Amino acid sequence: MGAEIGATTSVFPFNKRMADYLNATNRSSIANYSQHFSENLKADQDAHYDQLIEIDLDKLEPHLNGPFTPDLATPISQFKDALK
């Protein structure tokens, strides 16, 4: 959903979970091809970043987005009240 919030690109390093997903969604040829180049599909060891942000995913509450735009996000715990 990056494009909806103004991102022009998103990059995710290739890993086993991504290969598993590609295989599970009938894209095994892409998974196999990517595995041959997996060393080139991740950050360089000495890569430098302007900022490093770590997010504890266990502390995030699921949200429902919409309608029509992800800017209208409602935490699951408040969704019942939002429908009233």
Automatic annotation (TrEMBL):
Its cofactor is [4Fe-4S] cluster. InterPro entries: Acoase/IPM_deHydtase_lsu_aba, Aconitase/IPM_isomerase, Aconitase_4Fe-4S_dom, Aconitase_dom2. SUPFAM superfamilies: Aconitase iron-sulfur domain. One of its GO terms (molecular function) is 4 iron, 4 sulfur cluster binding. One of its GO terms (biological process) is tricarboxylic acid cycle. Pfam families: Aconitase. It comes from the Eukaryota. Residues 1-81 form the Aconitase/3-isopropylmalate dehydratase large subunit alpha/beta/alpha domain. One of its GO terms (cellular component) is cytosol. Belongs to the aconitase/IPM isomerase family. This is Aconitase/3-isopropylmalate dehydratase large subunit alpha/beta/alpha domain-containing protein.
